[in-house]
Amino acid sequence: MTRLDAAQFIALWILLSHLPPGSVRLRPGSRAVVGDGVDSVGNSSGTGERHWHTHAQVPGSAEGPLGGEPRPIQLNGRFAVRGDQIETP
């Protein structure tokens, strides 16, 4: 068994965009596990199809909250890279 010290855990923000108003199913402090639905995909950017953008980062400073260090994301067992198109079941 691997033991983890509390100091090994960091805060992580997952940022999502282009979601329809009111579609997010999580609230601040909620915990999600694999398979949980968190929102509905929309199209708030005026493109021809519904889509979303996702980004993971550690929280930034009070002056630049979105300026935190980016973190990798695994989707369907592989690391996502810029421009990937992920199909959902």
Counting helices, strands and paired strands, the structural category is mainly beta
Low-pLDDT segments, ≥5 res = none
Q: Average pLDDT, to the nearest integer?
A: 78
**SSE string, helix = H, strand = E?**
EEEE
Query: Which percent range fits the helix content?
Result: under 10%
Largest sheet: 2 strands, antiparallel
Q: What oligomerization state is this entry in?
A: single chain
Radius of gyration: 15 Å
Put simply, the count of helices is 0
Number of strands: 4
Please report the distance between the alpha carbons of the first and last residues: 34 Å
Outline, from the CA principal axes?
globular
**Main sheet: which strands, in order across?**
1-2
Features:
89 residues, mainly beta, two-stranded antiparallel ribbon, 4 strands, 0% helix, globular
Tell me what you see in this structure:
By secondary structure, the protein is mainly β. It is 0% helix and 16% strand. The chain has no helices and four strands. The protein has a two-stranded antiparallel ribbon with strand order 1-2. Strand 3 and strand 4 form a beta hairpin. The model has no long low-confidence stretch (mean pLDDT 78).
In short:
The protein has 89 residues and is an all-beta fold. It has strands spanning 13-17, 53-57, 74-75, 78-79.
